[in-house]
Amino acid sequence: MQISKRSPFDFAIIGTGISGACMAYHLDKLGKSVIVIEKDKIASGGSGAAGAFLSPKLASNSPYTKFINSSFEFSIKFYKENFPKFLKSNGILRILKSQDDIDKCRLYEDILPKNFTYLRADDIEMVKKDVSSFGGYFFKDGATIDSVGVIKEMLKVIDVVDSLHVESFDYINGYYEIGDIRAKGIVFCAGNSQDFKQLEYLGLKNIYGHRIDVKTATILPFHLHKSCSISASHDGLVHIGATHIPNYKYDKNRDYDVEVSRMIELAKSYLKFDGFEVKKVNFGVRNSSLDFFPTLGQIVDVKKTLEKYPYIKKGSKVPKEKYIYYPNLFVHAGLGARGFVLAPITSKILSEHICTHSNIPKRLETQRLFVKFAKKQKSGAPAPDVRDFTPLF
Ligand SMILES: Cc1cc2nc3c(=O)[nH]c(=O)nc-3n(C[C@H](O)[C@H](O)[C@H](O)COP(=O)(O)OP(=O)(O)OC[C@H]3O[C@@H](n4cnc5c(N)ncnc54)[C@H](O)[C@@H]3O)c2cc1C
Question: What's the pTM?
Answer without folding.
Answer: 0.93
